[in-house]
Amino acid sequence: MSKDFAKSKGWENGGKAVQGLKNEFNAANATSICPWGEEGVYALLPNSETHIFVKTIQITAIDTLGAGDCFIGAAIWALNEGIEIKKVLEFSVFVAGKKCSQKGLSNLKNLSEAKKIIERN
């Protein structure tokens, strides 16, 4: 879910957002993910009360337009590949961060650094 949606529900941080989503929408069997901008991303696995948190990468932000779309696309791809959730979040945060560190999208096609996140133990 988006940070804006979470805030509209009164959830003031990503941890409360993923928990609130599970409670309010009876989504105990779902994985909840909420990117929280420059802070990082929060997730809550099915039937769990323990949040997973991944910090954003350190960058100089140049152009944030499209970063959320890049995060979502990376997360959907990684989840579809059956990748473990912590690596999904690390990968998605990296892709979104790389997007923010450049103008436009044209250089995102070379994500060999991002693939290393998935391949490491």
Secondary-structure topology with pairs:
Blueprint: H1 3-8, H2 14-24, E1 32-35, E2 40-44, E3 51-55, H3 67-80, H4 85-100, H5 112-119
Antiparallel strand pairs: 1-2, 2-3
Summarize the structure.
This protein has 121 residues and is an alpha+beta fold.
Q: Explain this structure to me?
A:
The chain has 121 residues and is an alpha+beta fold. The protein has 2 domains: 1-55, YefM-like fold, CATH 3.40.1620; 57-121, no CATH class. The chain contains 5 helices and 3 strands, in the order H-H-E-E-E-H-H-H. The chain has a 3-stranded antiparallel β-sheet, with helices on both faces. Helix 4 runs antiparallel to helix 5 (112-119). The longest helix is centred in the last third of the chain and has 16 residues, at 85-100. The protein is globular. It starts with a helix and ends with a helix. The model has no long low-confidence stretch (mean pLDDT 92). This is Carbohydrate kinase PfkB domain-containing protein.
